[in-house]
Write a structure and sequence with these properties.
Blueprint (H helix, E strand, L loop, with lengths): L1 H19 L2 E2 L8 E4 L2 E4 L6 E2 L15 E2 L2 E2 L18 H18 L9
Antiparallel strand pairs: 1-4, 2-3, 5-6
Helix pairs in contact: 1-2
InterPro entries: Kinase-like_dom_sf, MAPK, Prot_kinase_dom, Ser/Thr_kinase_AS
Organism: Pseudo-nitzschia delicatissima
GO molecular function: ATP binding; protein kinase activity
């Protein structure tokens, strides 16, 4: 619980900074987080994308490592919508992944996800 209390505010601040700068990470997972003195550093922006000026979709000039509509992400931590249409609600993808990371920190594991 102490770890969660230390990491949660820092990770949310990092995501807020990234999203305010019109970037969505799209591959948020524990392996892409470096924690030092309760500060979180976000790494590996290889699947990241620029948001358009409204923040509602992708900027056409950069869409990461996409192959058609598929993007290189870690399926365990990815929001289900990223596999349906990677062009909608982009910042929500990162928030979904952050929620799974918090669950893993709180309970020590993640429930197995079943794709519909």
């Amino acid at each position: 619980e102490e770890t969660l209390d230390m990491i949660l505010p820092s990770l949310l601040a990092v995501l807020d900074h990234v999203h305010r700068n019109k970037i969505v990470h799209r591959d948020l997972k524990p392996a892409n987080l470096l924690v030092h003195d309760s500060n979180v550093l976000l790494m590996d922006f290889g699947s990241a994308a620029d948001l358009d000026p409204t923040g509602s979709g992708w900027n056409k000039r950069r869409v990461g490592l996409e192959n058609g509509n598929r993007v290189a992400v870690s399926p365990v931590y990815a929001a289900p919508e990223i596999f349906i249409d990677v062009h909608e609600a982009p910042t929500a993808f990162d928030m979904f992944s952050a929620g799974l990371i918090f669950c893993q920190l709180m309970f020590g594991y993640l429930e197995e996800r079943v794709d519909a």
